[in-house]
Design brief:
Order of helices and strands: EHEEEHHEHEHEHEEHEHHHEHEHEEHHH
Shape: globular
Largest sheet: 8 strands, mixed
Helix content: 25-40%
CATH superfamily of the largest domain: Glycogen Phosphorylase B
CATH topology of the largest domain: Rossmann fold
Number of strands: 14
Number of domains: 2
CATH architecture of the largest domain: 3-Layer(aba) Sandwich
Oligomer: single chain
Length: 419
């Protein structure tokens, strides 16, 4: 089987595999490449196509210069025209990176691929279908955009696809409910982790009654991630459990208003607009009194390979998200590392964390509930250990890349057996 993956052109060859979607794509593609021919299309040089080989995968970097010029002009025009208040994000338009899409569609015909697996770029489906009428088209969503953008536009695109994948049952069911006519084409393939890299921590060497306990957050420093709620909870934790340290790992990477607030009908998400008047990171630091600030470390972004050290030092991972997370990969990384999780009851997180078994779930945007859960686990060493061990087992069983690649191939084969 000859398989092509299509990344959003904002990801450039050579792709940065520390970013979630390129990482997901690469880990699946390199396993499929062991027995199939695999191509990955991504953005490339503004003028010339760039081809590299990585783990047996051919990466094609397609020129995007013309698209970038057009989109820059369009954004400027929208600011000064009657569309200046248009809240639709650029990626919602059918012409978004149209040149890139056309190049990919033409190259797919030349390559004679059997399957094309598209990440997010649903506007590419009609173009690819027109130029490659026999190819099997797979659309893979790690966001809720299909249910948030124009219904008729998305319905037209989905009608020309053969398989629609969600990264969680939460995403998959949302698509099925909004587009019942394609419900039988919708399935779930979870995101995953390298369970051989995220090895289980050795609790026998870390549990001590007098040690300073470490709490960990891993993710974008952005309002929808609920870091402000975590800091409010941490202030309460310190009052009852002074020997504790909070490490916040992640860059400040705030989603644009029209990619989050404007697309959502969730009241709690709408309320996050108040954080968009200045630097979110600065507002977080200003939230902390001096005696607490010394116990909070804003580490910033670090390479994936260094994350394991932080997980192994951590006693608990906190995942305080306020929006409905499509998945929540740091929960799985922590579980694979044998670290219990305190997370909010949102989106795909409910499919990852087993409440009372691999961690604790609390209501979102509730600093009191969050602090109570943290204090409970800080005070119960054996509970943390048992939850960590159960989390490791669940991660290996459900979220290893090898098992997810097998599931993906199962869906590919069904496309041909049922056609």
């Amino acid at each position: 089987m000859k398989i092509a993956f299509v990344l959003q052109p904002i990801f450039r060859v050579p792709v940065n595999k520390s970013i979630s979607i390129p990482l997901l794509n690469h880990e699946l593609a390199k396993r499929l490449a062991l027995s199939h021919e695999v191509i990955v299309y991504a953005g490339g040089n503004r003028i010339h196509k760039k081809i590299i080989c990585d783990d047996g995968i051919l990466y094609y970097g397609m020129p995007t210069g013309a698209d970038e010029v057009f989109l820059k002009v369009f954004k400027g025009w929208r600011l000064i025209s009657r569309f200046r208040n248009d809240q639709q994000p650029l990626f919602g338009y059918s012409f978004y990176y149209g040149g890139y899409i056309l190049q990919v569609a033409l190259d797919l015909r030349k390559q004679k691929c059997d399957v094309v697996h598209i990440h997010h770029l649903s506007q590419s489906i009609p173009v690819i279908r027109a130029i490659n009428p026999e190819i099997k088209i797979v659309l893979h969503m790690n966001m809720d955009w299909l249910t948030q953008l124009d219904h008729l536009m998305i319905e037209t695109r989905l009608s020309q696809s053969d398989l629609i994948l969600g990264c969680s049952n939460y995403i998959t069911e949302r698509i099925r409910q909004r587009f019942p006519q394609v419900a039988d084409r919708c399935h779930t393939v979870f995101n995953g982790v390298d369970v051989d890299h995220f090895i289980e921590k050795d609790y026998s060497s870390t549990i001590t009654n007098n040690a300073v306990k470490r709490i960990l957050f891993v993710g974008r420093v952005s309002p929808e991630k609920g870091v402000h709620t975590l800091l409010d909870a941490f202030k309460k934790v310190v009052e009852d459990y002074p020997d504790v340290q909070l490490d916040i790992i992640g860059k400040q990477l705030v989603l644009p208003l029209n990619e989050l607030i404007a697309l959502s009908d969730d009241t709690k998400v709408k309320e996050l607009a108040s954080f968009y008047s200045g630097s979110y990171l600065s507002s977080l630091k200003n939230r902390l009194p001096l005696h607490v600030a010394s116990q909070v470390s804003f580490v910033g972004g670090i390479p994936n390979l260094q994350l394991l050290n932080f997980y192994h030092k951590a006693d608990i991972l906190i995942f305080p998200s306020i929006w409905n997370e499509p998945f929540g990969i740091s929960n799985v990384e922590a579980m694979a590392s044998g670290v219990p999780v305190v997370a909010t009851r949102v989106g795909g997180v409910l499919e990852i964390v087993e409440d009372g078994k691999t961690g604790l779930l609390v209501e979102r945007d509730d600093s009191t509930a969050l602090s109570n859960a943290i204090l409970y686990l800080l005070s119960n060493d054996n509970e943390r250990k048992s939850m960590g061990q159960a989390g490791r087992q669940r991660a290996v069983e459900l979220f290893s890349w090898d098992k997810l690649a097998e599931k993906l191939m199962y869906h590919y084969r069904n496309l041909f057996e049922n056609s």
